[in-house]
Amino acid sequence: MRQMRALIIGAGIAGLAAAGALARDGWETTVLEQASGPRTAGYMIDFFEPGFTAAQSLGALSNLREYGQFYTRARYVDATGQTRAQLSMDSFLNAAGGKFFSILRPDIERGLREWVGHSTDIVQGAKVVSLDPGRYPDSGAPARVTLQDGREFGAELLIGADGIHSTVRSCLPVSAGGRQGTGPDRFLRHLGFHVFGYVFSDAALAARLGAEVLLTDSLTRQAGLYALPDGRVTFFGIVACNDPAPDTAMREDLFTRFRGLGPLVDQALERRPADMYEDFVAQSVVGLWHHGRSILLGDAAYAVSPLAGQGASLAVAGAELLTRTLRERDNDLSTAFADYEAAWRPVVEEQQAAGRRNTRFFVPPNRTSLLLRRGALHLMNLRGLNAFMARRAFGSVLPTQGPWAP
Ligand SMILES: Cc1cc2nc3c(=O)[nH]c(=O)nc-3n(C[C@H](O)[C@H](O)[C@H](O)COP(=O)(O)OP(=O)(O)OC[C@H]3O[C@@H](n4cnc5c(N)ncnc54)[C@H](O)[C@@H]3O)c2cc1C
User: What top-level branch of life does the organism fall under (predicted)?
Assistant: First the structure.
C-alpha cells in the first residue's frame, strides 16, 4: 500500500513533534520551514505538564532532557539589588510531581530535530504563501501549498504549525472565533505587552548568577536572567505596550525601558545580539481548527502567550494527542480532527484563561499588585500550598490528568 503523505508547515516545536510522531506511524512526512536553518533566538522556557508526559510517550523526552537545566531558586530583586521575594524551585518541582525542567527555546528545537532524525524531510527556506486545504474523503483532492519561490507540494494531510502569525490559518476558511476584521490579526487577542528574548556569552555574569534565576521586582515590566553552565546567559523582558504593532522606534524605546532595573540587567542589555526573539504578546482565537485535509496545531491554533508559560508544552502535547487520535481513528481525518479538537480545545482555552489571569502576577501594573505578588510567592514556598498556588497559576495541567494522558 502507498504511504500516506503529510505536509507540516513550520519546523517549530509543534511542527517537529507532529512530523516525528507521524513518521513513526508510517507517514511520509515533509516539513516546510521558512527560515534558512534552525532558529537560535529565544530564551529559557519552563517545560512541564502536559508536554512532559507527551514527550515521554513520543520517545522524545531524553532528547529534550539532554539540554534541560535545573535552577535552585528564583530571586526577585529590586533596582538596588535587594531581594524582595524568592521562590524555591523545589516547591515548583514538587508541585509539578518532579516532571519539570527549564530549557532554552532553541534547544527544544535542537532536541526535537535530533529526535526526528532522518525520518522526515525538512525543507528550509520554504515559505508557504498560499494553500488549498483539500477535500476529505475525496481522494482526488489533496491539500496543496505554494511556496514564495513558486514550488508546489501536495499531501493527504496538511498540518499548519506555523506559529502565532500563521499563514495557513489566514488561508483556511476558518472563523476568528466571533472576532471582527479581515486582516491576519483578526485571529489574535492582544494582551497589551511586548516580549524580548536572547542568549549571549558572558562567563563572568553566568558565574555570578550561578544556579539562581534573577527576576526583577518591578512595575509594568519584568526582566529575567538565567545562566547556562557553558558561560552563556539568557535574557527575557516583557513590557506593557498597548500598541499591537509598534514601529521600529517604539520597539527600541520599549527595549530601553528595562534599563535601570539593576546592574546585572543593565549589563545584559548591552549584550543584545542581532538574532533576538521579539514579538507582541497575544493569544490565537480560531473558531474551528480544521477544514478539508488541513488542521492547525500549536500557536497557529491556540497560542496561549508567554504569560501562560505553556506554549512549548502545549505544542508538544497537542502534536502527541493529534497524531495519537489519527492513529486510533485509522487515519480517518474527519473523525480524528473532530475528536482531537473536542478533547483539546477545553484544555488550551483553560490555559489561555490562566494566561490572562496571570498578567498582573507576571507584570504587576501597580504597587498593590507588586505587593500581592510578593505575598503569593511567599505562599508558594510553603509545603502544602505550593501545589495549590501552582495550579492556580497554571490551571489544571498540574499534576498529570486530562485527555492528553496516554
Ligand atoms: C525563533 C523563535 C523563538 C521563540 N522564542 C520563544 C521564547 O523564548 N519564549 C517563548 O515563550 N516563546 C518563544 N517562541 C514561541 C514559542 O516557540 C511558541 O509559543 C510555542 O513553542 C509554540 O510553538 P509552535 O511550534 O506552535 O510555534 P513556533 O515555535 O512559533 O514555530 C512556528 C514555525 O513556523 C515557521 N513559519 C511561520 N510561517 C511560515 C510560513 N509561511 N511558511 C513556512 N514556515 C513558517 C516559523 O519560522 C517557525 O519556525 C519563539 C518562536 C520562534 C519562532
Answer: Bacteria
